Amino acid sequence: MQNWKGEEIPAIRSKGGTLAVCDPMDNLIKADAIPWPPPEIVQKLYQSRQINSFRESDHHDLIKSLGFYCDLQSLHSEDALTWSVFGPLIYADDSARRNFSTSLLDYIKVPITSIGKTTIWLWRRLAHPETLVPGGPEIDFGIQTGSIVVLGEAKWLSGIGEKQGMGKNKDQLTLRREFIETYGPAVFREASDFVLLMVAPIMGMIDRREVRPKGRTIYFREIPWDWLCSLEGHPCGEELIQYLKWKKINSKNFEKRVWRWTEGSVDTNEEHIKITFEERPEHVALVGNYGGQITVQFLDSCDRDVKAAVRDELNFYFEELREPNPWGYAIYHCSTMANVYSKVHWGYYPGES
Question: b/e for 151-176, b at 16 or more Cβ within 10 A?
Fold first, then answer.
């Protein structure tokens, strides 16, 4: 197969159809000036039982590089994608980390009180919030900058891990929230705000909200991989965008993972879209974008027939069209002749604040 740079690399498909590269290094962005492989990658080079997902006749080629098969070889590997986004930033200069972190926090709408020296780290474990023993929740990526600590969870084709904790009655986010609420201020002593950030192909895995235990704010936020890889300040820039496209094209059943919009309240103090129907002057719906979560608020003037027509357009532009940046395309659509001639009219408003 060809990699994201158009180079031929050896790869094998599993019995279930998942692609894996024969050399795990072919699944990773290798930034300049990084001694290779860095320790973050070395700790992920361990034997995986997933070798049994491949035909025995292919085992020789799959273990030829390392002497064993590891999960970083799979194109479904969340760790390979996580490294390729955040790994180069770890070894970039501090200005690159600050610029990227500023763009990220601005995008997910977390207020920035100060941006100082910024650190980024991968795959560190917290103490278990219930037992305080080592080997608690593994944080896929962390960002510390100024008074803000971001604890990130990276997903590709999997969902939020459930049946965790001593009673097997909690999920991944609950354990992270409990650690922050109970021990976060004592551990991260310079932090006043925490962010639990989900990165996934589609939005809607967590609810966007804020809680304020003990005078500190915990922001629950999401961002899609497409938008994360397009943020300003990343040292790999265009290569990262091409890498993500390559991953999507070659991931089994990725085309089934599409954007979703949900119903909720829209804040007109922030940028939003107002929808009208035919020649009626009143607005029938509001559309907002909160860190990649498309939220729609149907107004009282929206009767059943109008709502059905609006829903059809929302489904088309935010789900069926599959634009890499659906919100940006929706804003563009507001200025098109297609919008003028449609029964459903979209109008963009930058915010009323």
Answer: bbbbbbeeeeeeebbeeeebbbbbbb
